[in-house]
Specification:
Length: 226
């Protein structure tokens, strides 16, 4: 079986750069390039939705210069890929708290514009998790329901998550050897298979992705049944 939705925790950019004696931001730039071929490769295989953890709510604690580089990279990525997304009928979703004061108006505008321009597409989805934290997402969803006086159920929470409509995550891939979720898609990954590899994100080739898919194929998923 092929996963319908894969979540990537793109970790190890800093260590990758350090190994080459380069600044951490060099690793982030290289890491962003990985997405270019990877999305096409996985969509061609038949995966419907790809979620990428680009910037966590906790990542604001990094040095200001690195935070700025990461934010600039997102804007650059969106600008560069918007024409391709439109051409390939790929929907761009940005999951995260975009209302935050820490995000500049210009960044917000550019991102929202790209999201709107691709919102009609359903075949392929690229979901970038930016200023994203799973706990924050769940709190937002519950507050939205309470404000409207709606009842809190699993379904109503789900419908108010930033990832509404993307479905559960089938496979989580984390690079760089760390084995944790770091506040990524906690609700959506309740029954996800977890794949960890020592490969650092900038080295994550399409072949590495195929290894993860092969591993996934051999998992027996029972969802609590027998
Ligand atoms: C992941 O790489 C990218 C982001 C968190 C944005 P890191 O920057 O965490 O790289 P390491 O873990 O320090 O090597
Ligand atoms: C998780 O990586 C966040 C992203 C990949 C955006 P981190 O490097 O920030 O997470 P920890 O600190 O290893 O848990
Ligand atoms: Mg890291």
């Amino acid at each position: 079986m092929l996963p319908k939705h894969i979540g990537f925790i793109m970790d190890g950019n800093g260590r990758w750069a350090k190994k080459q004696g380069k600044p951490r931001s060099f690793g982030h730039a290289k890491g962003a390039e990985v997405l270019e071929g990877l999305c096409d490769h996985l969509f061609e295989k038949g995966v419907r939705c790809l979620s990428f953890y680009a910037f966590s709510t906790e990542n604001w604690s990094r040095p200001e210069e690195e935070v700025k580089k990461l934010n600039d990279l997102l804007v650059k990525f969106v600008k560069k890929f918007l024409p391709t997304f439109i051409k390939n009928k790929t929907r761009l979703v940005i999951s995260g708290d975009l209302t935050s004061q820490r995000i500049s108006d210009s960044t917000r505008k550019k991102i929202m514009n790209a999201v709107e321009k691709t919102s009609e597409f359903t075949e392929h989805i690229v979901n970038i998790c930016y200023n994203y934290g799973s706990r924050s997402e769940i709190v937002h969803a519950v507050n939205a329901l309470l404000e409207r006086g709606e009842s809190v159920t699993e379904r109503s929470i789900e419908e108010n998550l930033w990832t509404n409509g993307l479905g559960d995550v089938d496979l989580i891939v984390r690079t760089s050897g760390e084995q944790r979720l770091s506040n990524f898609l906690l609700w959506q990954s309740a029954y996800a298979e977890l794949y960890f590899t020592d490969c650092l994100w900038p080295d994550f080739t399409n072949d590495e992705a195929d290894k993860a898919l092969m591993w996934f194929e051999n998992r027996k998923r029972t969802f609590g049944g027998v």
